[in-house]
Amino acid sequence: MTDADLATGRAAGTSELMMPPHFMLRVAPLAWERLEGLRFGRTVEWADAVLELEGRLQGWSTPLSDAIEPLVSGETDDDHRRALINLRRDIFNLRTPRNPDRARETMARLSPELAAELEEWLKTSLAYRQLRRDGTGVFKDEVVDRRRVLQRLAALPVLRAGIMLASPSLDEALPTYLKAAPEHLSKRNRRIERSVSEYVYRTIAKTSPFSTLTPVSLGTFTTDSDIDEGLLSVDGDALGPDRLTSHTRLNMAILARVGEAIVADDEMLDDLPIAISSGWTTDRKRVRYMRRQRRMGDAAAAMTLDTFDENVFYLAHSDIVDDLFSLLPAASTRRLSEIRQLLHEKSPDDRAMDNVRRYLRHLVRLNLLTVPMLVVNIHAPDPVTDFATRLGGLGRPWATALAEDLRGLNQSVASFRECSVDERRVVLRDLHSAVKKTLSRLGVENPESPRTILYEDATIPDGSVRASAEGWKEGAAADLRQLARILPLFDMMSSHRLMVRGFFHARFGRSGRCDDLVKFTHEFHLDVYDQYLNFAASHKTFRDNEYQDQENWFKMAEVTALDDARRMLISEMRRRYAAHGDDSEELVLDNDFIEAVAAKMPVLNEELDPRAYFVQVGDVDGERRVVLNRTYTGLSLLFSRFQHCFPDQDGAGLTGALRDHLREVTPDGAVLAEVTGGYDTSNLNMHAAVTEYEIVCPGEVSFRDTEDQIPVEDLYLEGDEATGTVKLKSRRLGKEVIPVYLGFLMPMALPEMQRLLLTFSRTRVAILDLWSGTDQPLGDDEIGGHPRVRLGDIVLVRRVWKTDPSNLPEGIIGAEGAERILGWRRWAKRHSLPRHVFVTPDKVDVEDSEENGGGVSFGKPQFVDFEDDFSLNLLDHIARSANRRLVFTEMLPDSDGLVAKGESGEQYVSEITIEINEAGTK
Length: 922
Fold this sequence. Notes:
This protein is α+β, with helices and mostly antiparallel strands. The chain has five domains: 27-38 and 139-243, no CATH class; 42-137, no CATH class; 249-455, no CATH class; 491-513 and 539-769, no CATH class; 800-891, no CATH class. It is 41% helix and 19% strand. Strands 1, 2, 3, 4, 5, 12, 13, 17, 18, 19, 27, 28 and 35 form a 13-stranded mixed sheet that branches. Strands 14-23-24-25-20-21-22 form a seven-stranded mixed sheet. Strand 33 and strand 34 form a beta hairpin. The chain is globular and about 120 Å long.
């Protein structure tokens, strides 16, 4: 396709804007007002008084030093001349004279007018010096009170319960800190204090669901007219730490370790039904199949994540291989002991029983033989019970005992929900012990249990969160729909989809067909994709603040159009920013901006554009706004992790509503089919089935009905001459198949086949970046930044300040007590930073920074209150560890704009995730 052939201009949505009937709320369990108890009010008042005197002294600095300068040059008395020089230096440097009386003697020899003004300066300077000295006492008295508040907060059950799961080591150390006298803390207790304060701020000021640290709720779109402004309504009596309901699950990684232990034992393996790995093919010489190898994750990590390696494997035909395949037809299972006996009996002289056993074990290791019973059913309401029931059905003593062990683990996990904090600690200890005993009985030497033995989510009461569907569709959702028109520019999946399309065109032509998806996947990765990923990883999107074209190996006009559209966006941002002026004012984008960029974009010919948005509803400058945190993909993904918290009742509920919605948005002539991602032992992948079909990749096991499965061998690729698109289709169904991934791993972390399938999905991974290429490099300036950006009612980007830690004022990093509060308050006031911000440090790899052009990546944002010394201690620690950048972002909505309020009017930080699935014609 030439540039002349390519249709550009992504039109405004004319298809139907559809939203699921539900959305998710994430809300802090503790009210915002709790943080006021940590504010060092008296020390802040002292700092403000210091800065007020400092300002007066700075006002005198230049005029008084200028007034003294000619007197110095004309003075013949060396002693007096030297005294004038010292006095002038003290004035200019805001320094109080060491000997005030001597300074007054010098001043007395000057003109009465100048002497009087210098006397005022000296009185102010002396007051300033005394006030600075008083700061130590003010802080010393106040820190005791503030520390008592922090200790009380740290002792709250809602915080202790979350810390217990998030950081067992901190939970173990915390009692020492809670018992410590606030007047004097050891170094160890100070380290504990820093860690616990971080959890306090994370719990109150951020919305990242984990245990009791951030509960969630299922929101409902309604037609009620009494919902405030239509955007969000939360019942006040549903908020607070006493309103939480716990939902727990055993760490699924334990089941993987149980499975590995069973397979490692010959006698237990004999009892297991085995099958030929799904998706195999054969010719006269050899069998081809997908070999999947599990790599166990680190048991000591906070999240134990097993990974898989996949590669196409070939096994030569032989008599025993052919006999094995005849004994195990497709989709059938038989006990390994039975297969072993039958293979031996077919040729007893040539196939000794022990040799057959070793051969079959070798095939298990090569993954040609699989054990479906040991695969975790990620769609089961209770995967552990499901796993245990299947094992118990074997009727073998060891399996029956193991099933009872697993049920016991599950019961302990369930009991955890109603336990007190101290009782929970006992349950966790017993669970770790029980897991080790179970693995030991299975023959594992030195067994380990995962650090995180169970996962907990917390919810607030059902039915307490609502929003108006019409209010969203007519307001904020319409603005988000406009934004979606340019999001493909920032979506990593856009270039990967086009890479697959280009490879297909090169191999099969624009209207060609590929019937062997496994071969296509293998050759695509081997021939171009792995190299492309390496090149893309080292590609610098910007050099000297100028955009650099993407890798375009197949010379595709669509890739060129994306580059052109990105340049148009940068050009429009530069033009508008140049005319903007003051960074304290919002930079407001309009539909003309969207139209200018969208006009350059390629038409991607996708009938379904599913997106999800993480947003915060709040009051900003007196107006109700929606503040964008991030964008992600739709089609129910953001509900999947929490489905177990909202089970259907009598066939009605969240899962049923999601199924109905997905059927409603499915384009004509297509079906939605889930790709499980190949991971069955991550709790993030556990959810009810919501798509009509499931794609079964080679080597995978599906528990869905056969008619609901789409094996990869049923799929083929077909090009469309008119549009240039390539579609994934099912032979049996005669329809396009749109893969849907509902797990939380990034696409690039998935095995090869699943990764390839996602290029035919509608998965969106867009990270909005409006300032690269527009925002000027920091250089040697002390601080830089850019203004807030808004489109309609949506705040797209918060205001940002950035600095290099080495450019911060001398002494600000490492100061303590009153001087730390004073130093950061002086800096924040000088650069107009608000009281509450989030700071993000860079994470430059020093060894690779030169090779990669000095690329910078960033860590997680940390809440900062410039009037709280515990918070500034964290900021100081972050500033010490940062390499080249500290990025400060305004808290928005700020504390005055929070809309989730309790019964007494107390405020809670909240965030919602909302899906907008723009559907094509039905």
